[in-house]
Amino acid sequence: MLRYLAKRGITYVFMIFLTTSAGYFLAVSSLKPALLEQERIPRPTPEQVANSMRLKGLDPDLSPWERYVEWLTAIVTRWDWGRSPNGAFINAEFGDRVWISTRLFLASIILTLVIGVALGVYSAARQYKFQDRVITSYSYLAYIVPAPIAYFLVQLGAININETVGERIFFVTGISTPGMEPGWAQFVDMLAHYAVPTIAITLVGWGSYQIAQRQYLLDNVNADFVRTARAKGLTRNQAISRHALRVSFIPVAQSIAFTIPAIFAGGFFAEKIFAWPGVGSWSIDAISLQDVNAATATLAYGSVIFALGAILADFATTLVDPRVRVQ
Amino acid sequence: MSSNLDAGPAEQPQSAVERLHVAGLHAPTDAVLSVRDLHVRFNTENGVVHAVRGVDFDLLPGKTLGIVGESGSGKSVTSLAIMGLLPTTAEISGSVRLKGKELLGLTDKAMCEYRGNELAMVFQDPLSSLTPVYTVGTQIVEALTIHNPTMSKQAKEARAVELLAMVGIPSPKDRLRAFPHEFSGGMRQRVMIAIAIANNPRVLIADEPTTALDVTIQAQVLEVLHTAQEETGAAVVMITHDLGVVAGMADDIMVMYAGKPVETGAVDDIYYNPRMPYTMGLLGAVPRVDVAEKSSLIPIEGMPPNLIHTPTGCSFAPRCPLASDACLDGEPPLAPVPGSTLHHAACIKSGALGGEVDVHDVFSAPPVPVSRFDAIPRGERAVVLQLKDVRKHFPLSKGALLKRRIGTVKAVDGVTFDIREGECFSIVGESGSGKTTTLLEIMEFHKDQDGEVVIGGISNKQAADARTKAAMRRELQMVFQDPTGALDPRFTVYEVLAEPLQNAGMDKQAIKKRIMELMKLVGLQPDHVNRFPNQFSGGQRQRVGIARALAVNPKLVVLDEPVSALDVSVQAGVINLLDKLRAELGLSYLMVAHDLSVVRHISNRVAVMYLGKIVEIGEVDRVFDNPRHPYTRALLSAIPVPDPHVEQTRERIILRGDLPSPLDAPKGCNFATRCPVFAALPPAKQEKCLTLEPPLEPVAPSAAAQALAAHALPVLDQRFACFFPDGELDEDMLVVHESADHHAP
């Protein structure tokens, strides 16, 4: 297993290196932070701009290859991912933003998975009955409605509640109220900020897991081995829960394993709408701000997350399916 | 005229039985399972399908009932209805009593007390019948836990080991922890049987338990079922379409057609004295592996009726050659055959069908076709296909990026044979023996192949350009196993048949004319050319496949299991067609089949393959009547014969285990690991088998025959690869069932 892991790890490190390098070349040749500086008032002279850029390691006069070598050397020797055009250090900014994204998504993704799989099993066992139709229709609706709209709707709902009660129970944007005393009040404040985004992301998210789990379970409900289990003397429901469920969980486990690292990757819409400045919104902002180093760093981070997901998915499959052997 | 006589008393005895049953006069100890007037209906989009229409039977303890019929005759639905495993949408009526207790109408939960306990079942497909994610041990123990909640863990495990040992799984203790995918098909079916008999059931239902298995494995599994029955004393319901499988096992037979039993009786009555034309047809449709004399098979024309519509007359009448107007007037009841109380048939003419009536008189079997080549000695006919030392080795490698070769799978290992004009040559063997790979190598026809393939004078060594290959393709065409998969569902039959002709560069008019010819040739109505494949039955589709192969007038047709996907009655028609075409068109066939009875019926010569090598080859009657290689002997002895007396008395060689993986192929004789002769040899002789590879050598005429003859006898057309063909067989591998315990009371 360790050997397998090492092998996969090396392959992924190589792939991450390739995507990141390619991304850097693309960013360095298309993003021109110097142009943005020109729009400042009072307008700086080109020499001033070039100077300030050079100080941040973003010299526009160097060739892309020279800048790539410089950037890569800094990462390899000092683990320094460079600076933004505004002077911020990527390393410092990055840590903050990953933590924010993680806090935003941690609870909601876990809830999404648990609720989605549970409802999938529940609805599969009641195929075409009223409960199944309601749940599955909802899932398809959640699938179709664009995430930003759903988030707005949840925000509106929270605001409505606030207005009805006449008191601000939920915060619909932001991470926390600044200047809170540590202690109980701060905890309540955190929950008030946390509730709306978590509910919104969960409500939108579990649809796809419900649909997948329901489908995979239904594929197995009439399988020959379920009939064998019933012939042994299990009732239909016992046979399904003991035999079909485990088999139907194999593909779901794989997709779950893929999702878990995504908790740390954040999401653009959620972060923007709920005003949590995480990795997701940073990656888009970096492009509009012509920020070469931030754009490349988020790309590299995305690749790492993906690789972790793939390895976890392999793990999950070997864990639930004895037919798969690791070699 | 006999109809009037029989129709009268027909109603009486049946209702008498019913009255006895209702009055409880049928002693409860009599029958362990008794089914009365079982009906099953399914609501479908097209209407109500009446799948089972009145099944009655009594099963006595320790006895075996065989239920025989074509697909769709309602046999599996009957068994699932008894088990209570039909979907809830099925409407079931009638009575099913297990030791006097009514089972129909019980809830799923109440049924669970009986299922797996007193009533157990073995299903058809062992590959999908076990849960893939649990160990075999877990699944056996589960069956024990459900019905014996108080049993200790150790006791359950001990019982599971005992069960696995009983069904013949080597080192059962270790195998408990193995997963189903680590077992072969035959082994999985043994595990299924172990699960079924875990709680000593009173009734064991086996639904086509061996249909998905190789013949040698089928023989092993039937043997296990036999042992299981002896150990548990259970009554067995054996459901099958193969009249051979039940001939040796069953005490009573019930033949089903269109959801209804049409003939019931003791096994001898059904096989030797059938009184219903359908039964007679079924028996006549099966080729016999033990009979050399060639007569045409009996095809039963037409298709079973659609069970959405209630039949107004005899449901078999549209396919019955004896049908008269009287047959269409009401469905005949199952009535006792004159002169017997236990033998019943649902035919108004059953009285007239007794005794000397021959199947061939009832059904119009076509005459045995004679080919113009039959008169010419084989040596003087032209060679259409020749294989010289053809090999196909697959490297077995390990590792993703850097591949290391860890071994070689010798799928085909030095195969040499030739096929002459007008003959049918068959390759037989278990799955994994290399039959299909041999076919693929012939179809591949590439100059880089290992060995030489010569088709119609064109060698693969000179097949450099596409033109030579195209010329070869016109000489050789293929018919595939699954007629449904081999035809494009979006092509009409016309388009299917036109494609090869267009490739050959024929013009439109000529193509049209040729297609009409082809349709007539294979016995399809020419005006059906614009239909799509799904509008035809399985047999008709295979006829389309044959027509497609014949379109370009090939000399050689390669048949890959041409009839194994078809029902027996339909299979007979396709075999007769192939026979006729060979004679009329002077075709040669290369056939791969696992059904040795079909091979014997249709072939002139046969090769037996084992692990990529031909172990015996020669004229079909010589090889089948006088097999020399122990593997051929085992293979032949494993084929069930639809004749109860033969089945009950003949000696069977039960090979141990499965075909070994080609990776572990032994150094000397490939077959040594499973060989019954090898097992009985003294160690000194065994050494020879293990170190030397036996060459394929001709059978020498016996010394006595040589002495009698004035001059040297001609070399017989039979060669085999074995050092000790006359060696004693290991007694442990021989099984003879005593006929005494098989006769019906």
Q: Structural class of the helix and strand makeup of chain A?
A: mainly alpha
Counting H and I runs of at least 4 residues, what is the number of helices of chain B?
A: 26
Main beta sheet of chain B, described?
8 strands, mixed
Rg value of chain A: 25 Å
Instruction: Give the averaged pLDDT of chain A, no decimals.
Output: 87
Low-confidence stretches of chain B: 1-17, 19-28, 739-745
Question: Could you give a quick summary of the protein structure above?
Answer:
The complex is a heterodimer of chains A (327) and B (745). With 327 residues, chain A is mostly helical. Chain A contains 13 helices and no strands.
Structure characterization notes:
The complex is a heterodimer of chains A (327) and B (745). Chain A has helices at residues 2-30, 33-37, 46-55, 64-78, 90-125, 130-144, 147-165, 184-221, 224-232, 236-259, 268-273, 279-288, 292-320. With 327 residues, chain A is mainly α. Chain A is globular and about 85 Å long. In chain A, 35% of the residues are buried. Chain B is globular. The longest helix of chain B has 22 residues, at 2-23. Chain B is of the alpha/beta class and 745 residues long. Chain B contains 26 helices and 26 strands. In chain B, a hairpin with a 2-residue loop joins strand 4 (91-98) and strand 5. Helices cover 33% and strands 21% of the residues of chain B. In chain B, the strands form 5 sheets. In chain B, strands 6-7-8-3-9-10-12-11 form an 8-stranded mixed β-sheet. Chain B has an 8-stranded mixed β-sheet with strand order 18-19-20-15-21-22-25-24, with helices on both faces.
